[in-house]
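Exercise 7.
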Amino acid sequence: MLNHLGQVAQQAAQKFGDKEALLFNGQGFTFAELADMVERVAAGLVAAGVKHGDVVTLYADNSWKWIVSYYAIARAGAVINPVNTMLTPEEIRYVVDDCGAKVIIASEDKVAGANAVLDRVLAAFTFGGDAPDGMGTFDQLLNGGAPVIPEIDVQPEDLSTICYTSGTTGHPKGAMQSHRSVILNATLTAQTQMRGASDIMVSALPCPHVYATVIMQVMMLYGAKLVLHERFDPKAVLEDVERQKATLIDGVPTMYMYLLNEPDLDSTDLSSLTRAFVGGQTMPVATMETVEKNFGVPLTELWGMTEIAGLGSTHPHDGDVKYGSIGCALPDCELRIADPEDPERALPRQEVGELQVKGPITMMGYFGAEQKTKETLLESGWLRTGDLGHMDEDGYVFIVDRLKDMILTGGFNVYPAEIERVLAEHPDIVLAAVGRKKDEVKGEVAKAYVVLKEGATADKEAINAFCRERLSAYKCPRSIRFVSDLPTTSTGKIMRRELHTLDEVNASR
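Solution. The predicted structure, written as tokens, is:
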């Protein structure tokens, strides 16, 4: 019986053995090879002083070493703290201090961040072959422990991971997940989306993100092959779909938009694909239809968050697909729409409110933050997501926007995502994001930041007219700025809170 993440690698080796599990930068690894390295790195961590219940920070870019380190930390009985590689050294110091990490493992390009916490941790290691003073190397972990370490007594309900949110309001918060919730989320996702040993999955999602972690767990739990990219490059992703005969691909909306505009798309053989998945942010229906037309497979939208260890909803493999919807709740979980001002009051179907989720995948709470936990995880067990949406009669949810992104203009609620979906339909626009701008009369109005396709000639007046045909007057952006790119997270998710920084530089046209 699988009780905790520390048992995953060995179980995978027993079930799938010499089947290829992972391909990274042209280097392949079988399940047996991964399990062997997990055991050895776990022994190295124990030899370095890691004890049951200690927190180990994993601050590294996508790599086979990241995956081995993840499971090795759990095998050693420690708590995994996977952090966003976009964090600065100052932010890393905050996270390490907040969760009390005893060890940090970093990739070569993140040594500066690791150096910033050397005085905070027991030991530090880098993926690189050469380590600066005060740090060890991954190879030392791999080869520096006892041949075998004893099994650690870890229960399913014990703490497995502390994953920090992006910190859109002040410091990030560490969402605590049990071993049961992490494993269960991946299991429910695989069963709902029919992922299995016959699948070859291509992903450039950053490993620390819960969406990417679920994909990794599916590889280990169900024997699927993962073709992992160090970073997103649309040309390289398309090449691997063709070369590896991938059956499915995962990404966020921005990734698919860049794939659609990759010159080699039309000449790439995508016939091996059976389906594609998109999550992380709402995606315009028009863009989804364009992806399906060009890729020749269904594009299934999903939704998830750090506080539930991955997915919370998707479209069942053999169920109805409703464009523009994030689907319905995973098995054994519930979704509801509630009043943001009175979160314990559920709202009728079709009425817009805050999306809430309940079930065995919800977090244990925020680490060391009792008050923030109470604000998010209600006594009734419902978890507040901060997403605004409505639910139809079949239980399918349609996200309207983020609660904190809503623009209040002249007494009307304006949702940036609704405007973005319209802008995405414009034939000359590659990417678009909507922020807010202060207005003396209306309080605040919508401001659009637009990236045009290469060679496009659309002007502000034409885009305004396009919006007025499709949106109520109060919803239309009152200002449009042309830019060369948009600020994104490590997953490619557009950061609306950073759009104002584009006003500090010269417009692209």
